[in-house]
UniProtKB/TrEMBL annotation:
Residues 27-166 form the Radical SAM core domain. Keywords: Iron, Iron-sulfur, Metal-binding, S-adenosyl-L-methionine. Residues 188-326 form the Arsenosugar biosynthesis radical SAM protein ArsS-like C-terminal domain. This is Radical SAM. InterPro entries: Aldolase_TIM (IPR013785), ArsS-like_C (IPR024521), rSAM (IPR007197), rSAM_ArsS-like (IPR026351), rSAM_sf (IPR058240). The keyword Metal-binding applies. It comes from the Bacteria. SUPFAM superfamilies: Radical SAM enzymes. It comes from Trichodesmium erythraeum (strain IMS101).
Length: 328
């Protein structure tokens, strides 16, 4: 039983969360995916059809061409490789000397029509950040579907043969998600460096798989995770747990501060989580933003304050959580 009242996230901060100079463009290019993972905050699946249009893709390419301050183009989905615009966006970013991140589920490589993706990523030296929510087979298959673990291992071995995970020009990182809680036994991700060593030892010993870094990501109570928690009547207790573990030292490094998250319709958000919860980024005048408006105003830096919600505690609890793992 909670002894004190829940403190809303913005009240906990005591002031607005301000934006920094934009250096990262994260683009969710569509909801289509060959998997339907239980923890997916995007609620992607093979049944989803939403994806970039040609018009929005061309606007995004213009954005990449026009603004040298963009250092990283981060492509996500769904399975980004399955959705329209993947290769054109990659090629525009490469042409402009941007780092390109592909957030892959790995199993897409075995779907007919996408077998060329590993070689394509290798030829363009794309950074692959791949979801492997545990190094043990049973845990992965419970979260992502039967057979996903073995396909993921085969994909990692394939990438290793191409040179991934073995030098600094072909980066292969993995992402750990803890199981979604099904009781009041809540827990934050384990220490990122220690868990990375566990992953590396196990995968090397059993499969001769190598990778660069492990990123630990806290389950935010949105999307399928929120629905699951609500069905068990533990959504608010989980929020209470995250609030109780708030760490102010994470604020400086929050990913929402230097990135723009863009959806397949060209709408702009502060982060991918806000995108999924339909909380758009806003100007100081309260206006919502699109890629077309960024181009019209000829600036990426028109947002002063990040839009926040109570699930932001998920990014600021413990060692923090982001698309690049722990924050402190």
């Amino acid at each position: 039983m909670r002894k004190t009242a829940f403190i809303p996230f913005l009240a906990k901060l005591g002031k607005a969360l301000t934006k920094k100079k934009i250096t990262v463009l994260q683009i969710n290019i569509g909801r289509r995916c060959n998997l339907a993972c239980t923890h997916c905050h995007v609620e992607a699946s093979p049944k989803r059809t939403e994806e970039l249009s040609k018009e929005i893709c061309e606007q995004l390419i213009e954005l990449i061409n026009r603004f040298p301050q963009i250092q990283t183009v981060d492509l996500t989905g769904g399975a980004p490789e399955m959705n329209y615009g993947f290769k054109p966006l990659v090629e525009a970013a490469i042409k402009n000397n941007k780092e390109v991140i592909v957030r892959s589920n790995l199993t897409i490589y075995f779907v007919p029509g996408f077998e060329d993706i590993p070689q394509y990523c290798a030829e363009n030296k794309l950074r692959i950040i791949a979801s492997l929510p545990c190094y043990l087979e049973d845990n992965v298959d419970k979260m992502r579907g039967n057979g996903v673990y073995q396909k993921s291992i085969r994909a990692l071995q394939w990438l290793n043969r191409l040179g991934y995970g073995q030098n600094q020009s072909m980066i292969l990182d993995l992402v750990y998600n803890p199981p979604v809680p099904n009781s009041y036994k809540f827990a934050l991700p384990a220490n990122q460096k220690n868990l990375e060593q566990d992953y590396k030892s196990y995968l090397k010993e059993h499969f001769n798989v190598k990778f660069n870094q492990l990123f630990t990501i806290t389950n935010l109570p949105i999307g399928r995770t929120r629905l699951f928690l609500e069905n068990l009547k533990i959504h608010q207790p989980y929020l209470d747990f995250l609030e109780a573990n708030f760490n102010g030292e994470t604020i400086e490094n929050l990913m929402c501060r230097n990135e723009l998250s863009i959806d397949y319709l060209g709408n702009v958000y502060d982060c991918d989580f806000n995108q999924m919860e339909n909380i758009p980024a806003k100007t100081s005048k309260g206006e919502t933003i699109t890629v077309a408006k960024l181009l019209e105003g000829n600036s990426l830096d028109i947002i002063e304050q990040v839009q926040t919600a109570n699930y932001c505690y998920g990014c600021t609890a413990g060692c923090g959580s982001s698309c690049g793992g722990a924050l402190v």
